[in-house]
Write a structure and sequence with these properties.
The protein has five helices and nine strands; from the N terminus they run H-E-E-H-H-H-E-E-E-H-E-E-E-E. It is of the alpha+beta class. It has a seven-stranded antiparallel sheet, covered by helices on one side. A two-stranded antiparallel ribbon has the order 1-2.
């Protein structure tokens, strides 16, 4: 009887150890062939960044390189024709969004870029702004920042960096307008 119990326990141990074995799979590459844009039913589409922060680095350039408004208008016209409706839009508003912020672009019915608006948070600020902060705020650390910009066409007319700095238990907010660097740094104390 002892032998039966012993061999039964031994059998269960062997089976459970064998079940814990890791099976190594071969690496596989999956390639998706498309125009890079996935259209969804609610007129949302996905454009992938090649690297983290590509959109926030230069949003208008990213939009121009990765989005074709004419294709989008054609897609909407085709969708409307299958629904037996005519498109009478005067303009199109397109949102490009990441976890760091977004770009809103407004296009005319002919596909011309009318205006853009950008809002980003905690992005890598340009080197000239980092250098100015380092030179003027030694001992202070940037803890967060926001960037807002707007403009007509593909030109940026207004832009502002709002940067929160900390030094120990002291904090302050620095507002920088890049066009007026050196002459227009505004400090707001917390």
């Amino acid at each position: 009887m002892k032998n039966v119990i012993f061999y039964s326990l031994l059998f269960l141990c062997v089976v459970s150890v064998k079940a814990q074995e890791v099976t190594q799979l071969e690496a596989t590459t999956v390639t998706l062939v498309s125009d890079g844009i996935s259209y969804l039913d609610n007129n949302v589409f996905i454009v992938r960044e090649n690297y983290a922060g590509e959109l926030s680095e230069n949003p208008v350039k990213f939009m121009k390189e990765n989005f074709d408004i004419q294709s989008y208008i054609s897609y909407l016209d085709l969708k409307k024709s299958t629904d037996f409706q005519k498109s009478h839009k005067e303009s199109y508003e397109v949102l490009f969004s990441t976890n760091k912020g977004d770009l809103v672009a407004k296009f005319s019915k002919d596909g011309e870029l009318i205006e853009t608006s950008q809002n980003f948070k905690n992005i890598l600020v340009p080197s000239n702004i980092r250098k100015e902060l380092y030179a003027n705020y030694k001992g202070w650390n940037m803890v967060k920042n926001t960037y807002t910009a707007s403009g007509e066409g593909d030109q940026i007319d207004k832009e502002l960096y709002r940067i929160k700095l900390k030094n120990g238990n002291k904090s302050q907010i620095v507002k920088i307008v890049p066009d007026r660097m050196g002459s227009d740094v505004v400090v707001v104390r917390d």
